[in-house]
Amino acid sequence: MNAPLRIALVGAGIMGRQHLHHLKGLDSAVLCAVADPAPQSAGFAAQCGVEWFADTAQMLAAAKPDGVIIANPNTLHVSTALTCLAAGVPVLLEKPVGVDLAEVRTLVAASRDSGVPVLAGHHRRHNPLIVRAHELVHSGALGRLSTVTALWQLQKPESYFDIPWRREAGAGMLLTNLIHDLDLLRHLCGEVRQVQAITSNAVRGYGNEDCAAVLLQFENGALGTLTGSDAVAAPWSWELDSGENPVYPRQSDQPCYLLAGTGGALSIPQLKRWHYAEDGAGWHQPLLVEQEAFKPDEALRLQLEHFVRVIRREVAPLVSAADAARTLALIEAIREAAATGRACAPAPIDA
Ligand SMILES: NC(=O)c1ccc[n+]([C@@H]2O[C@H](COP(=O)([O-])OP(=O)(O)OC[C@H]3O[C@@H](n4cnc5c(N)ncnc54)[C@H](O)[C@@H]3O)[C@@H](O)[C@H]2O)c1
Fold first, then answer.
1. How remote is the CA of residue 156 from the centroid of ligand 1, in Å?
2. What is the pLDDT of residue 88?
3. Which of 4, 94, 250, 340 is most buried (CB neighbours < 10 A)?
């Protein structure tokens, strides 16, 4: 049996503490240090029984972790990950992988050239229901995937915007929230060739979008729509429908993604699969519906277990820096499409 890996946390805020909650439940890894310049994080590190550092480089030199979870502010993601990679330490890097594609490309190159892995924190891909949906789509259970409908429509309370950066340009729901949905759409449906988009801030009037409508053309020919708003009293979103995070009261009967192909259709998160009894049937025959089985489990814990295996070099990251960079490139294409009114292609990313 391997000794538990020593994991450090950089950024002991809301998300970092969620990771720690799951880390405590693992036999294969233990927390060894906390790095976060906020004074209150020193007390938090003491509560956890580990040494506190204000600075990541000092932490790496002193604690010599086997891996680092990075959950600090978005603008620090790339520089922090580069510091860890330079010390030869694999990272679990929260989403977004960075805020600027040019900067993220340096991280992709550093991980490739050093051979030190980056696991990007698109944790929903680890959710067993997404694992099952991915199997179904890729096994051909839906036939040729043709149309994709994604919904992210919910209401953030006004208090959410008390924190100033949440009202400012660049920090809107595209980069904060829809990045998860777009990452899943890439994962389930394939790469996106081009997008058209309209965004609006008409409800709140802040510096970032509160509504978005996106048209997606996938490389496999499928066509999709993603409509998003964080200013509507509606029940259609992964957050409300999947039950993944108990802080959101669940609307378990409502879908957030509808995938339809020539041989069947799938609603997510319900995992109901619709199909005809025979090939060649059509709208005059009844559609049959199957409830696809999966074993619910916690995506964040499964992601950490995967990170342990990534550190041990037993598996490649499920979401590499290059993979996460493609999701960021898709966000940038949507922004450009919304700003120009043109169809835009995501910038290519070399692995
Ligand atoms: N995967 C998800 O579903 C999900 C959900 C929420 C947040 N996140 C991501 O997690 C990250 C953190 O978000 P949060 O909501 O926990 O924010 P937060 O503000 O609660 O926590 C950020 C922490 O980083 C610390 N920090 C600031 N500068 C630092 C530095 N130089 N070095 C180390 N630590 C530093 C802050 O003191 C704070 O404790 C963000 O990138 C966010 O996008 C992901």
1. 19
2. 98
3. 94
